[in-house]
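We emphasize that the prediction below concerns an isolated chain of 88 residues; any contacts that depend on oligomerization or on bound cofactors are therefore not represented. The input was used exactly as deposited, without trimming of termini.
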Amino acid sequence: MHTGGTGMALLQVRNFPDDVYNSLALLAKSEHRSIAQQTIVLVTTAVYGDNQKKKQRQELLKELLGAPPVLSGDHPSPAELIREDRDR
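Result of the prediction step, given as a token string:
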């Protein structure tokens, strides 16, 4: 493995299919990334899956479900809203 002096490995791919490269370039452009950045994102997702994003979503959901909403001011109760809706 060659790290190029930055502590990060360098990757060179030979005989990369033109159609795949062109699709990668279009995807990178649509995501406002370089081809190298897009390749890292895709390979990382392929290797590790979406486990990191899944963990982040689960933590956020726990946080949202664990804290009841705090209402301030003059908000009607749920019963008042139901009565108002029935009276219409």
